[in-house]
Amino acid sequence: MLNRTIKTRIIENFLIIWLTFDDDGFDRESIVQLRQIVNSIKIFSNWQQCLQTIRELTNEQIYLIVSNFDDRNLFSQLDSNKQINSIYLHSSQPIAHPTNEKIQGTYSTIEQICSKLKSKIVQDENNLMPMSFFSSTNLNELDPMFIYAHFMREILMNFNGNQRDFLEFSRVQYAANRYQLELIDEFKRTYSKSSAMFWFKRSSFLTNMMNRALRAQDTELILQLSFFIRDLDEEITSKQKTSIQPLIVYHCQCMFNEDFEKLTRNQNGFLAFENFLRVTTNKIDSIHAGNHQTAVLFQIHIHSSIYQLSETEFVLSLHTLFHIDQIEPLDEHFCQIHLSLINENNQQLTQLTEHIRMNMRSETNMKRLAKLMLVLGRFEKAREIYSIVIETTDETDRKQLAHLHHQIGLTYEETDDLANALIHFQKSLESYLSYLPINDRQLSPTYSTIGLVLKKQGQFDSSLEYLQHALDIDLLSPNLEQSDIAIRYNNIGGVFDAQGKRHEALECYQHALKLEQQTLPAHHPLLGATHNNIGLVYHALKDYSLALKHFQMTLEIEQESVQSKHPSLIMIYANIAGVYEDIKNYDQAIVYAQKAVEIVETTFGEQHSQTRMLKDYFERLKQKLRN
After folding, report:
1. What is the DSSP letter of 342?
2. How high is the pLDDT of residue 303?
3. Residues 319 and 341 reside in one and the same domain
4. Are 550 and 532 in contact (CB under 8 A)?
5. Among candidate residues 397, 428, 400, the one with its CA nearest the CA of residue 412
6. Residues 6+ apart with CB under 8 A from 319
7. For the chain, what is the domain count?
8. What is the spatial distance between Cα 423 and Cα 103, in angstroms, rounded to a whole number?
9. Computed from CA positions of residues 153, 155, 157, 159, in that sequence, does the dihedral angle turn out positive or negative?
10. 66 and 28 in one domain?
């Protein structure tokens, strides 16, 4: 990786937040003791600031220490927060508190709290074992976590991670943790590929970071750890032994109820553990589940090779896939799930793997992964990956940088962060202009994209400049598809429409329609969209007969390509109902409004805002008919 500034950040699954109103309540040695267990510690003396920080955290489990504070209102606000794992009251005197199973008790010393945390964090880390589940091998229905893990495993096997960079990164993250710094020094002196399993079994900065990286799908952290993950995977794979008899092993953890419900919906489907999994032949009879949790005992049937740690303990490799054979409730909060290991030669698995590769061929691994995250709607994850690729891209590769900034811009646009989208689209344009002339055909899509973002921001004059420039380039380009030019006219018409310049908008839309009719099939979706745009303009101009004509043509085109209850029909029916309402034909308005209501209820449910809005409109139409 290229040299860059290393920023400190949270790099473990757990965080200690210490709320204290007594400056004598903690000292440096207390912090040292706590950091042997959890590296990141935040200290507050204002409980409202403390609560705000807790609410902002999303990926961390919090151990909350409260010193010399007994406001019952605080505890009631913390009870439903999923990020808070447990609460430790620190006081020389008993503290009155409401009944709350997260509160572990009152402790007079930090040493006592540390002792409790040391025993608790082992099971808590185990409870955070990441999983993905799915029942269909259709790419669009796969768990995004599974797809990410699948691609990342392939990337790791070919990524040249640098141990020296990793050690430098680790020292920055653990700079205030002398215990872990000593382990980092030991790792530097003694680590080799053959010692990967030794370090995996040992509780240290290494496994703490790996658990966080794989659970949060933290791309930067995974790549920092890539050499170790690859070494460990290779050791497990190369030293697996085939059991003479089928083997039954167990893994037990507590799952949040919503995750458990998702798992149960995939019975007879597939499950993958997205970390290295330690299992045992010793069956666990029970485990305590907290509020909003279910304890799950996984009974795993092994019919192939497995890595053996000891007489009773084994390790399964990263991203191992299982079939969910049976889900067996044992009591209200304890369930046994029967899994069977899927062999790598399994036909379904082979087809699935090939299907994913085929959908993302011709890209580098990292760009394939980012592109797939975009398709799946994981925009922040796609942005994270593209940002890492940018940092490792040579600054002289202007074409690659232009493409990457464009993709990052898309991730911001999809989440309505138009300011940042515009920044990256303009950076993309700057990179292209460093080696292309200002009117090059390749720049037309970029000019158009910037123009559309400016339109969303309400900067209509600037938007028109960019969109018109894109159109001018296209009109001078030989062999360009006329349908592409039609899209440019539609975009410019949309800006005029937003400005209230109906006649200018209509002229653009009609020009687009003429080009589309010359080059596209009669029921192409682009024709439907343009007819709809024209219908909206005529409606605004109160030319109701022409508005109805174009809306009906939109409806005919859509009905040729989608099912009768497809969501794309909702707005078309509503538009037609609106025209009939304006000409006081309430009977017909009600017919089309009812069609819109039926689809929106089926698609979004009765409580959705769009459903309520259309039902209110439907009732107003019925009232007008009665009057």
Report:
1. P
2. 80
3. yes
4. yes
5. 428
6. 149, 150, 153, 272, 273, 274
7. 3
8. 47
9. negative
10. yes
Q: What is the average pLDDT score of the chain?
A: 87
- CB atoms inside a 10 Å sphere around CB 333: 19
Tokens for 235? Answer: 């050791």
Does residue 240 contact residue 307 with C-beta atoms inside 8 Å?
A: yes
CATH number (domain holding residue 34) = 3.40.50.2300
User: Hey, is 526 helix, strand or coil?
Assistant: helix
Using the structure block, give the residue that is written with the tokens 């008790």.
105
What is the DSSP pairing of strand 14-20 with strand 61-67? parallel
The pairing of strands 334-341 and 320-331 is antiparallel
The answer to whether the Cα torsion of 216, 219, 224, 227 is positive or negative is positive
Quick: pLDDT tens for 400-414.
999 999 999 999 998
Radius of gyration (Cα) for the chain, nearest Å?
30
Phi, psi of 556 (to 5 degrees): -60, -40
Q: 4-53: per-residue pLDDT in tens?
A: 577 888 999 999 999 987 655 567 889 999 999 999 999 998 888 888 89
Domain of residue 314, residue span: 240-355
Boundary-marking domain end, from 191, 219, 238: 238
Asked if 260 contacts 211 with a C-beta cutoff of 8 angstroms, the reply is no
Name the token pair of 491.
Answer: 């975009």
Residue 2: predicted pLDDT: 40
| Residue owning tokens 């004059």 | 461
Q: Which stretches within 174-271 are classed as H helix?
A: 178-190, 196-201, 205-216, 219-224, 226-238, 257-264
Shared domain for 275 and 217, answered yes or no, is no
Element (H, E) at 279: strand 277-280
Q: Calculate ∠ Cα 41-172-16, nearest 5°.
A: 10
Whether residue 604 lies inside any domain: the answer is no
> Looking at 71-75, 298-302, 338-342, which range is the least confident one?
71-75
For residue 480, being part of any structural domain is answered with no
CATH of the domain at 321: 3.90.176.10
Using pLDDT thresholds of 50, 70 and 90, give the confidence band for residue 388. Answer: confident
What is the Cα–Cα distance from 624 to 434, expressed in whole angstroms?
62
Q: Which of 355, 375, 391 is the last residue of a domain?
A: 355
Which region among 20-29, 398-407, 426-435, 493-502 has the lowest average model confidence (pLDDT)?
20-29
Written as six digits, the tokens of 184 are 């980092």
